[in-house]
Every structure is written in structure tokens, then in C-alpha cells.
């Protein structure tokens, strides 16, 4: 498996699949290794996907200093990957929590970003979290599902008061629920670094005013992508995120949740491939 050294000497791995010009892919979680991304619903038929295992996840080494799990510290890892690949500029895709890392990278290295795709990314880096009411409003869209009546009261209690995550909540994060989707969802337990996830957005990770100011000057095209049924971000939050960038477009995938390439691979692949094919 290909690997490279981060600035602090941590050895990081990445997975490569597909054909065509590369797209660097940052997984979410936060701090979940990249295996759950698969080939992004077939996007690998259009572009070569370079999927980074963030430090301490997947095949990447754990750092000597756990403080470096913080999102702003990971920007240096992405830049080291760009240098390792020998690319002047990169097409960058961040999913979910990886969207905040992608935004911080674009803010710090704007000249190194050719295109930026934020896939169902709650913009923590901009201090624009998905609220409890956002998530409940999206959940209510699933009221006709056979599992809704049992799951929703517990989901609402969890969102409002905290507690342990219940597996009954998982269908709220997808646009459909069948055996194939359930198999994808079952991967989560073994793919996340919980210590790293807790440190990812810890104090000091984000400086929203500075990030907003930097992204307001970004010249690269940006795609802000939302699922119609996703609670974080809901389409409205995606539109507000797009307003931060001077050259952004919004795509809302019908019937999709937080993993749109799982819900409808063809729709997702067509839309994202079209964005990455944009002439610069």
C-alpha cells in the first residue's frame, strides 16, 4: 500500500483506485478510515481516487502526539500528500467531517486547490453546525418508514439529552434502508478511532472568522453537496455554506441521506463527475 511521511514523521497510507486525473478524498467520521467510501459509487470510472487514511486510522500510523489528531494539524498531512503525489494543484473532495478539513486546507493553501467538493459536510470550520432541530426536521421526513415509529422518540431524546448511540438511529443517516445499505452501515463500528474523533474538533481546531475570510478569496470552483433527507447538513445549511465561497454551486440529491453514493450511486457519480470535469 502506498505511503508517505507527514511533517512530524508519522507514516500515512492512502488507497488508489480508478482511472483518470486524481481526486484527493478526505474521509469523515470524524477520524474514520477511508474504507467506507468504497469507490464513491463508481466515481472511480471517471477519476482516480486517492483516499487518505487519516493518521491513526486504517493503515496509517498513530502519531507520537495525540494532540495532532486535531483538525487544523491534519492540514499539514494533506499538503504532504499533495507534495508526495507531485501535483501542483489538487482536486479535493471531503465527506462529512472531512469537509471541515478540506475547508481548512483550502483556506491555508488556496493556490493548491483546483476544485473543491464538500459532500454532505457540516461546516464546523465555519461555526455553522447542524442543529438538533435540523436533524429532527430531516428525521420527520422518514415518517412513512416502517421503523420510524419505534426509532424516532429515542432519536429525539438522544439528540436533546445525549446518551449512548442506539443502532435504531442508523437508518436516519441513509436515504433508503435495505440489506445493502445495512451492510454499509455495519462497517462503522470497526472503522473509527474514538480517541482521535474526540480530539478532531477540540478547542483551537477552528478559527471561523479567519477561515471565512480566506475562503471568501478562494478562486477555485466549489461544489456543496447535500442529500434531500440528510439532517447534517440539510439543504438550507448547504446553501448558506455556499454563500461563503465566491464560486460555489449547490447540488441536492433527491432521496439521499448522509451517504449519497450509497443511496443512489448513478445520481451521485453523474453529478460529481460533471463537477470535476469543469473546465478551469
| SSE run | EEEEHEHEHHHHHEHEHH
Tally of helical runs = 10
Number of domains: 1
CATH fold label: Rossmann fold
Strand order, biggest sheet? 1-2-4-3-5-6-7-8
The structure class reads alpha/beta
The biggest sheet, with number of strands, parallel, antiparallel or mixed sense and barrel status, is: 8 strands, mixed
| Unreliable residue stretches | none
Query: How many β-strand stretches?
Result: 8
> C-alpha Rg, in Å?
18 Å
| CATH architecture classification name | 3-Layer(aba) Sandwich
The CATH class is identified as Alpha Beta
- Roughly how many Å apart are the termini? 32 Å
Helix-strand blueprint:
Blueprint: E1 3-5, E2 11-17, E3 22-26, E4 48-52, H1 71-85, E5 90-95, H2 98-108, E6 113-119, H3 132-140, H4 148-161, H5 179-185, H6 194-200, H7 208-215, E7 222-227, H8 235-242, E8 248-253, H9 260-263, H10 265-276
Parallel strand pairs: 3-4, 3-5, 5-6, 6-7, 7-8
Antiparallel strand pairs: 1-2, 2-4
